[in-house]
Fold:
Amino acid sequence: MKILMLTWEYPPRVVGGLARAVADLSQALVAEGHEVSVVTGDWPESEQTEYVGGVRVYRVNQFFPKPMDFLDEVHFMNYHLVQKGSDLLHHVDFDLIHAHDWMVAPSAKVLKHAFQKPLVCTIHATEWGRNNGLHTDLQRHISDLEWWLTYESYRVICCSEYMREELRRIFQVPEDKLSVIPNGVQADDFAKVHDNLDAWRNNWATPEEEIVLYVGRHVFEKGIDLLLSAAPKVLSYRPQAKFIIAGKGPMSDELKRQAWDLGLGEKVHFPGFVDDLTRNSLYKLADVAVFPSRYEPFGIVALEAMAGQAPVVVSDVGGFRETVEHGQNGLTFYTGNANSLADNILHILGDKALAQTLNTRAAQDLKERFDWRQIAKQTVECFKQVAPKPHENKAFYDRYQLTRTFVERGGQARESNNHGRW
Structure:
């Protein structure tokens, strides 16, 4: 199959888990014999084209004209995505368009209708879920764009059963339009670490200290404040613990003030953004990796920590419930409960045999449940449900449009067997 992907971030630009997931999926699809072109708006200096793992990646300039605000930046990016996508679609007979999240919804919709191509989207998270509701005009606007993308798509992919229910509840997406396909992890990507790891460790902790690690964005939904609130109890039982809070975000300064107010002092370190080699090395050295999210559609960070051979403690929320089995491949705590979080951290720090048992099972799960080759095959089966043969494409699109027009003019939307569309 020939697949055109639209995404707002792609490595080396990595803001959250979306970039890594899109990159790994696209490369896995190529490894399965498919042709993938990715158009992404993450190159602020000049447009560039490159091959990454067999994937054609087209990076467009999204910062000219200079945007006045965040929504302007999104809209300008979509203008450039439409331009590049149109150029590709004029020269390549793609089977379908695959869009990732709301920030590419306008370009996905335009290209779908202009070239009469089936559209599939993956919703990685929702604005409603990130904010536990919609509280501002900007949040409501983003949520509308998310609904719009699911409405325009022939098929909607989400990463967990938790997200399936969220999309049904918030956007009323019909059940037969939804596919649940998990994210995965390339375990080999986490094998490379710093040379002489023991000596390198001295830059982060003393030999007797136990490393409690967090890696990710500093935003409210990730629950880092809960980890800091749990730190005093952990330190009262394990004074040798050392907390490393890697990453950055809008809450970074607030979190540093919280650590100061709690008197954590030298027991907590905020290194900021860390590169992949440093991240891998920290996972390898960590006595426990902690992800205390309040909202997590899937939780790919837990898989990355497992791949880095760090035992994990996560909140029992969202997709974490489906990837981390308490006492089997990690430990889970009651979401939002700092006391429960501290207890689980102490459990792993105090039982090294348990930590090793969790790591062994986690490595097995990565191979059996979260391998990108299997995920790519599942994704292709989803694509086949909506991608017609070339000679059927026009009639296929017209049938979809007839149903869509009926709905927009007041007809009753219903679930059907018509390839999961309205």
Q: What stands out?
A: The first strand starts at residue 2 and ends at 7.
